[in-house]
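tool=predict chain=A
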Amino acid sequence: MSQDLEQAEPTPTSDVRPGFHGELDEVRIGIAHLSAGVTELIPRATQVLLDADLEGADYVIQGDSVFDARSLELEEQCFNIIALQAPVASDLRLLVSSVKIVADVERSADLCVNICKAARRIYSHELDSNLRGMISKLGSQATRLFKEATEAYLQTDGPRAAAINDMDEYLDDLHRQFVQTIFESHAAGTIDLQVAVQLALVARFYERIGDHAVNVGERTRYIVSGWVPEQPYPESGSNFEEDPSPPDEEG
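tool=predict ok
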């Protein structure tokens, strides 16, 4: 991923406004870096959950402020360019879509934090092999989706972005399988009700990460060709993304 970011070709520019198009490239690469960070965060959060790693959970939770701050910087950068440069056509599509993509990426980082908070709440509870296997699959597919979305945006690759929605169907299927596995484990007495509830929330967090990756892909298609989906984009700020459990002592 980092190699792709370094080798990314600058967006073709007009000789009339080289500075302006340089600013657009800076925004595009900055957002791709932020998204690549989430791509790395998803497997880290997954491993925290599987390993019951309290130290790792704290590291991810405390590090969320970095994603928040960088997201604000990128949004402000987009708004400043719009205000000062008055972009049109594809340039305006890029900037407007990039603001939305920043929100999708930031929300996905929040979801990784929520997975780590769930890991702390079920600490000391053993998970059976079926549950662990499903968690690994969810984490792997969510990572794959976000990686593809990031690279499609970075390369402004419309066909690659279009494939993300189909990839998300597999993640949705894994989500349904995981929920069924949670019911079965609870019925068998291998996990108690509170653990089952937390794992059901975790399943939803992974599904929402996939939804955000789909949003990035669809917004990338809009940047490339002006295409818009028949159905509205899922809300970036869904209630399911808010951590429903009581706040931790450290806030």
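The mean pLDDT is 89. The domain at 2-7+18-227 is CATH 1.20.58.220 (Methane Monooxygenase Hydroxylase; Chain G, domain 1).
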